[in-house]
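$ ./design --mode recover --in tokens.txt
reading tokens...
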């Protein structure tokens, strides 16, 4: 059991956390540059921002590969080879039509009757881990290491990508179809479920950004458009985004008396994951932001109709990526801006603070239960 916990921590906490950093340094930053570039009126500056965005997004797979390999303690040759594995597996997937795979282990330029579905960060996650671990078995073991290590790492990476990426893309396909269909027919219920679940995942030591990048991908949106459920798909992404904001802003507000303005910045613009140690000591401190998420989620889907896609749906207010994603995907209007401010900032702060004060009165939350230590 101890060995199992060790590997679960290594792969699903350490490696997935590193993948989130890789995503942030490429796809997320690229999204921010692209969004800002769309609003800039100075031609040369807009062009520069869009160019940065294009290349940053294009480097997503490579950034994921290097990030995961680095966190797993890979030797240099293994790490650099994993950049190629990450690019390969991030781009590889399958062509799906009518729930059936029509083309196996192909990339976006493949021909086929259906929608190309890439494995994305999920495929890169599994393929890079396998390639890295196998590559480390041979790294620095021979006198021709400069040849053996890259050959083994890349070959294993290709084999893992070829076998796993179409399966991962197929699972993501059905998950996206389910969420889009369910939200289309039950926007109230799914607004609550998606907001609460994705918000909880954001606070847990796993990557909500990576998970949302897989579920709310451009391929999933294309399938939703074909199925007539694109509205539900986009609304679900918006619910995920506000649910993440509720956790971050909620913890920042409800712990203000302990952490002051430093806590506002570290949690509101950083991550609510900082509270995981305190949650383990007293799980009741998780109630206020979770209840706030359950309220703002359906408000997002039913009242304000906020849209969000891709990795932005799982980032919350970290670097303001979640709100920026909503701005990028939702048509600009007074209703959108009102919903953005209320669901992402004002209501999570007010509701979480209110709920936390009630729990403090009941004795469920005590002084310093949410204190962040150095």
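writing sequence...
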């Amino acid at each position: 059991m101890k060995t199992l916990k060790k590997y679960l921590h290594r792969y699903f906490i350490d490696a997935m956390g590193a993948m989130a950093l890789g995503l942030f340094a490429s796809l997320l930053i690229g999204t921010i540059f692209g969004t800002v570039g769309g609003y800039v009126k100075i031609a040369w500056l807009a062009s520069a921002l869009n160019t940065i965005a294009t290349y940053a997004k294009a480097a997503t797979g490579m950034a994921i590969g290097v990030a995961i390999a680095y966190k797993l303690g890979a030797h240099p040759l293994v790490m650099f080879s994993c950049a190629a594995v990450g690019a390969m597996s991030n781009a590889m997937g399958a062509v799906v039509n009518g729930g059936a795979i029509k083309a196996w282990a192909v990339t976006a330029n493949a021909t086929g009757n259906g929608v190309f579905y890439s494995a994305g960060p999920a495929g890169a996650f599994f393929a890079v881990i396998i390639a890295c671990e196998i590559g480390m078995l041979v790294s620095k073991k021979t006198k021709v290491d400069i040849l053996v290590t890259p050959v083994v790492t890349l070959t294993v990476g290709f084999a893992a990508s070829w076998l796993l990426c179409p399966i991962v893309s197929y699972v993501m396909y059905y998950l996206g179809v389910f969420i889009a269909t369910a939200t289309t027919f039950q926007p109230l219920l799914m607004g609550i479920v998606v907001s609460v679940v994705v918000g909880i995942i954001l606070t847990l030591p796993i990557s909500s950004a990576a998970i949302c990048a897989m579920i709310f991908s451009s391929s999933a949106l294309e399938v939703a458009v074909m199925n007539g459920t694109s509205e539900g798909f986009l609304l679900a992404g918006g619910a995920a985004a506000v649910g993440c904001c509720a956790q971050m802003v909620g913890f920042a507000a409800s712990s203000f008396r302990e952490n002051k303005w430093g806590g506002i910045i570290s949690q509101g613009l950083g991550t609510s994951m900082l509270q995981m140690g305190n949650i383990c000591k007293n799980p009741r401190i998780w109630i206020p932001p979770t209840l706030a998420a359950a309220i703002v989620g359906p408000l997002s889907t039913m009242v304000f109709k906020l849209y969000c896609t891709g990795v932005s749906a799982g980032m919350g207010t970290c670097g303001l990526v979640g709100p920026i994603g909503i701005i990028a995907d939702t048509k600009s209007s007074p209703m959108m801006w009102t919903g953005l401010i209320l669901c992402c900032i004002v209501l999570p702060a007010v509701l979480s603070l209110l709920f936390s004060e009630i729990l403090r009165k009941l004795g469920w939350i005590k002084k310093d239960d949410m204190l962040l230590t150095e």
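exit 0
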